[in-house]
Amino acid sequence: MTKISSTVARGDDGNIQITFDIPFELITVNRALVLADIAKDTEVPGFRKGKAPISEVEKKVAPDNIIEKILAKILPAALGEAITENKIKPAIYPKFELIKAVNNENWQVRAVTCEIPQFELGDYKKLITDNLKTVIITPQIKEKSQEEKEQSIIKLLIESIPVRLPQILVDEEVNSRLSQLLNRIEKLGLNLDSYLTSVGKTPQSIRDEYTIQAKNTISLELILQKIAEDQNVKIEDKQIDEVIKVSGVDPKAAEKLNNPEQRLFIASILRKKAALESLTALV
Description:
Layout: E1 5-10, E2 15-22, H1 24-39, H2 54-59, H3 63-85, E3 95-100, E4 107-114, H4 124-132, H5 146-160, H6 167-187, H7 192-199, H8 203-230, H9 237-245, H10 251-257, H11 260-280
Antiparallel strand pairs: 1-2, 2-4, 3-4
């Protein structure tokens, strides 16, 4: 079996680059498979659908489209093997970049992903009690609400526990927020320029604002997740069932929530919520 070799480079911030060297022999085999698949649905004048010679079919398909389909057949298995061999725990699905695709030569592709950064919580309980301990309640000073306590704790955690985030993780979150913003603008019947003018911002200032928000959001997620692990927070199935039940969605939508992936997501949210609630009890 033709072997795809891979080289892994790890950055200090958790970024990971995997460079694949794909033998041209494997490219040739998969090109034939791709073109055979495309030929089934391609109409070429003078031939019945699906019966045209491969050479004629290839003329009607954009080269980039063929390359994309070839790599789609090869890369998933190669990626899985590289992740297993190098004990990588990717935080996001990799972004692929074609480095070289020359005829009769090995192709090279780079995959960029990252791992969850390692960091220390320190004595977070002492941090909170020393900085946010409850003051003596008087008629002039009312006790903080639960929400106020949570916001104070969140601010303190983000400012006091340094988490070095991989840039690709931040960029992923920023781009997601920008995409959501564009969708909202379109629904309002506006274009980006008119919206930015109305709020007195520029594309760069919006990106800078979202970058700060993304870093804070991701850092908080990771910190609360680690605190939940430190406190050995457990979420029972009945708690997840209750969330799905009271979500207010119709039965069909609720059914979609009741799958392993969504249940894991809900459990993760509940663990972080429980961790935050345990911290508010300290102040």
